[in-house]
């Protein structure tokens, strides 16, 4: 039940001047990614401001993306919540909308214990038939998925992968060693090649919003055996990756996209505008790398 190999983009949700979903711009962005070799689309996740768009907006974005992409590449939806019942019901709605797979973040704020998190994911996975990607991002959730817990979760038939964003490469190595049946995607754009070197299948990437071809080429080069090229791309673009996280994601990536002409709009509160000093650092790096936007 492998969903994809390569570079999946953690897609922004573009907003118009009224801070509503801009579907005409979303259509253009989706087509842009197909043309520029993105291997999967991930909507309504962290970068898509899933925490501040309503359930109805999420379903509308999911349905729209599924329709526009039309099976050319997989479309995956972020459906996680810290409310198990809500996450399971919404995941079923996303499945009915035609999504190819789910990205489900670890419950945040209430910080479930081991047994609770296991039952949380089990409930969601058993509510649907499509593949589920676990999303481990302790910096946002306050919880790290332990190796014993991952072993148990990997036994659930349609839990097939892990988006790993702890930043701990030793942890990634242990997951790969102990749970080889679980596909691993890097959740950190500065660690794509290290994760691939441990058997990872690719990345779910923020920077791919503006350099999709580079992100795809990095993964494909590595998997084809051109380690030197993959490493060169990783190192070359890490300064761009770093500046995209000077402030809370997706503030910098939307600022970058607006500078490059994508017209992604502002973030919804409580994510405000980027500090001007950080914005200038971002623009300087974009210019230095000759990132051009639409192609």
List keywords for this structure.
45% helix, globular, single chain, 12 helices, 295 residues, eight-stranded parallel beta barrel, alpha/beta
Notes on the protein architecture:
With 295 residues, the chain is α/β, with parallel strands linked by helices. It has an eight-stranded parallel beta barrel, surrounded by four helices. The model has no long low-confidence stretch (mean pLDDT 97). The two termini are 33 Å apart. It is globular. The protein has twelve helices and eight strands. The longest helix is centred in the C-terminal third of the chain and has 17 residues, at 227-243. Helix 1 packs across helix 2 (55-69) and helix 3 packs parallel to helix 4.
- Please state the structural category: alpha/beta
Q: How many helices?
A: 12
How many strands appear in the DSSP assignment? 8
Indicate the low-confidence ranges by residue numbers: none
For the biggest β-sheet, the strand order reads 1-2-3-4-5-6-7-8
User: What percentage of the residues does DSSP assign to strands (E)?
Assistant: 5-15%
What composes the largest sheet?
8 strands, parallel, barrel
Order of helices and strands: EHEHEHEHEHHEHEHEHHHH
Overall, the morphology is globular
**Mean model confidence by pLDDT:** 97
| Helical residues, percent | 40-55%
Radius of gyration: 18 Å
Alpha carbon gap, first and last residue: 33 Å
Question: What's the gist of this structure?
Answer:
Helix content is 45%, strand content 13%. The protein has 295 residues and is an alpha/beta fold. The longest helix is centred in the last third of the chain and has 17 residues, at 227-243.
């Amino acid at each position: 039940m492998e969903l994809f190999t390569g570079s999946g983009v953690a897609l922004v949700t573009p907003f118009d001047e009224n801070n509503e979903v801009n579907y005409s711009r979303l259509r253009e962005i989706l087509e842009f990614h197909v043309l520029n070799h993105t291997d999967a689309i991930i909507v309504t996740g962290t970068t898509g401001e899933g925490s501040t768009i309503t359930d109805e907006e999420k379903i509308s974005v999911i349905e729209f993306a599924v329709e526009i992409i039309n099976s050319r590449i997989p479309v995956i939806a972020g459906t996680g919540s810290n409310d198990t019942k809500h996450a399971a019901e919404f995941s079923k709605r996303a499945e009915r909308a035609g999504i190819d797979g789910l990205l489900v973040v670890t419950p945040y704020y209430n910080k479930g214990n081991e047994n609770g998190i296991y039952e949380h994911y089990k409930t969601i996975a058993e509510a649907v038939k499509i593949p589920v990607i676990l999303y481990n991002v302790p910096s946002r959730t306050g919880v790290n998925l332990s190796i014993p817990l991952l072993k148990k979760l990997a036994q659930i038939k349609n839990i097939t992968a892990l988006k790993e964003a702890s930043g701990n490469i030793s942890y990634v190595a242990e997951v790969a060693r102990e749970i080889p049946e679980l596909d691993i995607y890097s959740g950190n754009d500065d660690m794509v090649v290290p994760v691939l070197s441990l058997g990872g299948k690719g990345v779910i990437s923020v920077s791919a919003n503006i350099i999709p071809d580079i992100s795809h080429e990095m993964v494909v080069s590595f998997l084809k055996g051109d380690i030197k090229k993959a490493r060169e791309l990783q190192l070359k673009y890490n300064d761009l990756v770093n500046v995209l996280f000077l402030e809370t994601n997706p503030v910098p990536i939307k600022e970058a996209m607006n500078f490059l002409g994508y017209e992604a709009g502002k973030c919804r509160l409580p994510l405000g505008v980027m500090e001007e000093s950080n914005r200038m650092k971002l623009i300087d790096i974009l210019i230095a790398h000759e990132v051009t936007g639409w192609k």
